[in-house]
């Protein structure tokens, strides 16, 4: 026990040194180490920690107390974006910040433990979709398939995270996966793991030579993928551009700054301000652009557009380069630094970012130039929607009618309404379309039939309401 305790205090001391050291936070926190008040509180903490070890009714592993103390330290900041990272958390964070990992290329899902299972297949892991041009995609794994075993181990008792751990691994190694397709087609596939790049960009051409660019998140690869998309638009003689960052949770500051430079020829893209001198920075645009000034740009945002997505939207709005359409964005205007610490790590807010107009949108969000959103449902409509989802009415219909034409769909909607469902036809039709697309290996990049925000962007670009500079 003595050795464990000594090890703990060595770790804690190392943590505090790193937390306040010159290399990480700069010279203006040097006083932290010599602050007598801080030393007093550390002494109190040391006493209480030892008191718990000696007197709690059960013996508690030192590691558990240590991790609990670190989590509490960050929780006391009352900042949802600053927290201690376990080893597993750190691995997930590295996947996001590096934009790639070793695996087979599958998006998967499974009901959380404790959820009531309405379908026996929910015991297994469902393939949401394979990532294009990955081992699973090339091997013929389809959206809607179920993984039942991995290396002869049943997935019934495994969580999604545990399944992910078993599917990931060193590139070049094999993993045996048992697949259930439909209700009675079972087979095995040996997948050879490879480096999987997280998809971040989707592009397409809309009617009227309108380019559509969807940015899913900002990783080290996103700027290069956006550059490739713009080249695709050039080859297709685009005359206007839609940038869709709806549901984009953000990502790397450097990545979004690089992308902003594709559209802006002068002035700041974003700036960061902090009490730590070396975290104050202004990201300036250069004179060269990839998208000419005469190309009108519409930017689609919603309440799920956050952080780096808001940086791009704010830069294009403040400079007059783009017109924002949709809903007010999430409102995350802070910058975090991720740092490894022993097996785990930490994520800490070290600055706030400001748009070119010197506005910080934290907890406020960015308002669109043209607000467009679906109307709110009444209580009765919300109840009907909840019933459709809870009873899997639409997904069961698609399972039974995978190639349903418009007539079959209209008959289904009529049956729902006769059964007490109170929803507009358009809402149910959209649910049907979404469920159908969920079962496709490569779903459509956009949905111009039901996406009213996209429809408004196309209208405004087509009529000239949105102009280039």
Folded structure, characterized:
- The protein has 469 residues and is α+β, with helices and mostly antiparallel strands.
- The chain has helices spanning 2-20, 22-25, 31-34, 36-55, 62-75, 87-98, 135-138, 160-167, 222-235, 253-260, 308-318, 379-390, 393-400, 406-418, 425-438, 452-462; strands spanning 83-85, 100-103, 106-109, 125-130, 146-150, 153-154, 174-181, 185-192, 194-197, 201-206, 210-215, 240-244, 268-273, 281-284, 297-301, 323-326, 334-341, 344-354, 370-371.
- Strands 3, 4, 5, 6, 7 and 8 form a six-stranded antiparallel beta sheet that branches. A six-stranded mixed beta sheet has the order 10-11-12-15-16-19, with helices on both faces. Strands 1, 13, 14, 17 and 18 form a five-stranded antiparallel beta sheet that branches.
- It folds into four domains: 2-76, no CATH class; 100-197, Pdz3 Domain (Roll); 201-337 and 348-373, Alpha-Beta Complex (2-enoyl-CoA Hydratase, Chain A, domain 1), CATH 3.90.226; 379-453, no CATH class.
- Helix 10 packs parallel to helix 11 (308-318).
Entry summary:
With 469 residues, the chain is α+β, with helices and mostly antiparallel strands.
Task: Name some characteristics of this structure.
single chain; 469 residues; alpha+beta; Pdz3 Domain; 2-enoyl-CoA Hydratase, Chain A, domain 1; 4 domains; six-stranded antiparallel sheet; six-stranded mixed sheet; 16 helices; globular
């Amino acid at each position: 026990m003595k050795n464990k305790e000594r090890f703990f205090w060595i770790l804690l001391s190392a943590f505090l040194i790193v937390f306040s050291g010159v290399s990480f936070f700069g010279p203006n926190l040097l006083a932290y180490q010599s602050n007598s008040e801080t030393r007093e509180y550390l002494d109190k903490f040391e006493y209480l920690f030892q008191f718990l070890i000696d007197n709690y009714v059960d013996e508690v592993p030192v590691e558990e107390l240590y991790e609990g103390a670190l989590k509490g330290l960050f929780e006391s900041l009352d900042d949802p974006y600053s927290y201690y990272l376990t080893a597993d958390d750190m691995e997930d964070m590295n996947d996001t910040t590096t934009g790639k990992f070793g695996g087979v290329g599958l998006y998967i899902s499974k009901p959380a433990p404790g959820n009531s299972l309405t379908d026996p297949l929910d015991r297994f892991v469902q393939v949401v979709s394979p990532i294009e041009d990955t081992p699973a995609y090339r091997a013929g794994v389809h959206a809607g398939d179920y993984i039942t075993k991995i290396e002869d181990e049943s997935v019934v008792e495994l969580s999604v995270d545990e399944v992910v751990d078993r599917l990931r691994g060193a590139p070049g190694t094999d993993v045996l996966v048992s697949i259930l397709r439909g209700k009675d087609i079972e087979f095995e596939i040996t997948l050879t793991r490879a480096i999987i790049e997280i998809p971040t960009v989707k592009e397409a051409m809309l009617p009227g030579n309108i380019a559509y660019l969807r940015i899913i998140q900002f990783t080290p690869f996103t700027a290069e993928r956006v550059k490739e998309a713009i080249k695709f638009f050039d080859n297709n003689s685009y005359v206007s551009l839609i940038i869709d960052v709806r549901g984009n949770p953000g990502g790397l500051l450097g990545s979004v700054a690089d992308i902003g430079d594709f559209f802006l020829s002068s002035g700041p893209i974003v700036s960061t301000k902090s009490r730590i001198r070396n975290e104050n920075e202004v990201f300036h645009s250069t004179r060269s652009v990839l998208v000419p000034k005469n190309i009108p740009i519409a930017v689609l945002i919603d309440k799920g557009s956050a952080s780096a997505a808001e940086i791009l939207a704010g830069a294009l709005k403040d400079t007059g380069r783009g017109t924002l359409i949709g809903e007010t964005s999430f409102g995350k205007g802070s910058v975090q630094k991720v740092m490894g610490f022993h097996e785990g790590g930490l994520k800490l807010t070290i600055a706030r970012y400001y748009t070119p107009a010197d506005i910080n949108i934290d907890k406020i969000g960015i308002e669109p130039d043209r607000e467009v959103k679906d109307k709110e449902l009444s209580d009765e409509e919300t109840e009907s929607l909840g019933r459709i989802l809870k009873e899997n009415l639409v997904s069961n219909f698609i399972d039974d009618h995978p190639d349903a034409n418009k007539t079959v769909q209209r008959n289904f909607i009529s049956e729902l309404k006769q059964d007490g469902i109170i929803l507009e036809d358009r809402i149910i039709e959209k649910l049907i379309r979404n469920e159908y697309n969920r079962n496709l290996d490569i779903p459509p990049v956009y949905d111009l039939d039901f996406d009213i925000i996209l429809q408004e962007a196309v209208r405004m670009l087509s009529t000239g309401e949105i102009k280039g500079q």
